[in-house]
Amino acid sequence: MDILDILLGASFWAATIRIACPLIFATLGELICERAGVLNLGIEGIMTAGAMSGWLWVYNGGDLVSAVFFAAAVGAMLGLLHASFTVSLGLSQHVTGIGITLLASSLSYFIIKMLLPESTSPPKVTPFQNMDIPALSSLPFLGEALFSHTPLTYAAFIIVPLAMYVLYRTPWGLAVRIAGENPVALEAQGIDVIRVRTLAVMLGSALMAVGGASLTISAFDAFYFGMINGRGWICVALVIFASWRPGKALLGALLFAGLDAFQVRMQQQAGAYIPYQFFLMLPYVLSIVAMIIVARRAEYPKALLKPYRRGERL
Q1: Going by C-beta distance under 8 Å and a sequence separation of 6 or more, which residues neighbour residue 256?
Q2: Residue 113 in contact with residue 122, Cβ under 8 Å?
Q3: Closest alpha carbon to 20 in 220, 218, 254, 231
Q4: CB-based contacts of 313, cutoff 8 Å, min separation 6
Q5: According to the model, what pLDDT value does residue 297 have?
Q6: Distance of CA 314 to the CA centre of its chain
Q7: Which of 20, 44, 156, 218 has CB atoms 3.0–4.6 Å from 232's, for a disulfide?
Q8: What is the CA 37 to chain-centroid distance, rounded?
């Protein structure tokens, strides 16, 4: 009955949507990168940099909307750095991605320590407030669960169909998909593969950074060390779970977020009988199981992880 009470509560579904917000942004960002043939393992560090830069912008007097764009710009620059090594120079995407994560995370923590050396607790800012949808927010159950969230949360769900439209209905989206499947064919059409891949990595990294910023200026009100807490790696797994499709990526993000929201409530219900570490690992274990089941049938981009040089055949 306790489990049913949790699953049937509006607060559970509202929490699921809130937790899913940064995952949606970052998963879509990783999906765009991989669709273009580039694995971006810098996602954890880029999300950290986005969280720090978005919070720092507001802390220094900037408004919330411009903080989102500033975080996106920081993410795009880190994406450009990643693409410079992996796309232009053809270096290992695995090694470069891990290097970007270490660089971006360490640099973010260094900047905070330099600017706030005496601070013992994270300074707080005023984050985005919940925006009730007129008429809909007053609906029983659905109003609290679906129609009373921050603007960034709504934006995360809006960007999914937008990403689907761009990838499947625009010439640039077609170029991105061909760059990840058969870049030789793309070059034969007179399109610069290096440029397409670089722009895709920059756009994807910008979305990752916005996902990080949503934690500090939407879900919470401060930046603290370790706040990304492996979300970036989960997003890499969610891309595989989604078979590189934006719609399924949304479902995967909601699934993981629901498991996360569920384990928090189960800790409160059964924490006296079962060690809390069991509930903490539950979303990750179930996500891995789901990914293994789905990944067997997934068709990955054929040129993923393969560097491309003009005039060469893969």
Answers
A1: 20, 23, 234, 238, 283, 287
A2: no
A3: 254
A4: 184
A5: 75
A6: 30
A7: 44
A8: 18
Q: What is the pLDDT of residue 309?
A: 81
- Residue 269 pLDDT: 73
Rounded to an integer, what distance in angstroms lies between the CA atom of residue 194 and that of residue 310? 9
pLDDT of residue 79: 97
> Which residue stretches of the chain have pLDDT < 50?
1
Classify 148 as helix, strand or coil.
strand
Angle, alpha carbons 10-27-98 (nearest 5°)? 130
Token pair 């509560």 is found at 9
Closest-CA residue to 210 (of 31, 28, 32) = 28
Residues 6 or more apart from 153 whose CB is under 8 A from it? Answer: 17, 18, 21, 214, 218
What are the counts of helices (DSSP H) followed by strands (DSSP E) for the chain?
Answer: 13, 2
Q: State the burial class of residue 251 (Cβ atoms within 10 Å of its Cβ: 0-12, 13-18, 19+).
A: middle
- Token readout for 304 is 């993923």
List, for residues 250-273, the tens digit of each pLDDT value: 999 999 999 889 888 887 776 657
CA angle 71, 74, 79 (to 5 degrees): 125
Q: Tally Cβ neighbours within 10 Å of residue 97.
A: 25
What confidence score (pLDDT) does residue 303 get?
Answer: 93
Residue 132 forms beta bridges with which residues?
148
Task: Write down the pLDDT at residue 170.
Answer: 96
Whose CA is closest to 32, among 217, 183, 210, 196?
196
Q: In whole angstroms, what separates CA 73 from the centre of its chain? A: 15
State how far the Cα of 203 lies from the Cα of 208, in Å rounded to an integer: 9
**Cα(188)–Cα(185) distance, rounded to whole angstroms?**
5
- pLDDT value of position 271: 60
DSSP E strands, the chain: 131-132, 148-149
Q: What pLDDT does 267 receive?
A: 79
